[in-house]
Amino acid sequence: MICIITGDIVGSRKIKDSWLLSLKTALKTVSGQNGKWEIYRGDSFQVEVDAEDAIKTAAYIKACIRINKPADVRMGIGIGEVKTKRKKLSESSGDVFVNSGAAFDSLKQAKVNLAIKTENPDFDEEINVLIKLSLIAMDSWGVVAAEMVKLALENENVVQSELAIISKRTQSSVSEALKRARYSEIMEMDKLYRKKLNQILSQ
């Protein structure tokens, strides 16, 4: 089981392309050693990550893009198997690509910026409700909140006092930004997603 995230930048033609460097850096970071990502049609992208990292990866990409206000990102998360692996992601095939495309295509109709699709409709329904709730916070991240979420996800084992030193901010401003971003609640959602995913994978 792997995860393919298909996404695009919202209103990219109307904003400066400072988001492009942020997107490239984010995709390089989240794809890690596998390096499976590509940008196509100027503002669309796909990236392959471990299935259990789907929510955290989406939050990280979102934070990287939201730093470039007013840029935002739409993403469809697909979980499934790969049938044919090719060098380019866009030329590979399998359930995971179908699911990712279907999740992405559902965004406009559902009027949301993030959704997930697997082979398990009950799981999808449950996780998509959590995602919708998390988007209340994520869609309103300002630049500082997005910066702090990005930094916190890059330094997960670091306490807030150390994040303050890295970001050259006071500890209280770091704490306030993460609270405003609902960072701890999003991490709780990530934890629950991993637990539910492991349950369906072990069936």
UniProtKB/TrEMBL annotation:
<protein>
    <submittedName>
        <fullName>SatD family protein</fullName>
    </submittedName>
</protein>
<dbReference type="Pfam" id="PF16264">
    <property type="entry name" value="SatD"/>
</dbReference>
<dbReference type="InterPro" id="IPR032580">
    <property type="entry name" value="SatD"/>
</dbReference>
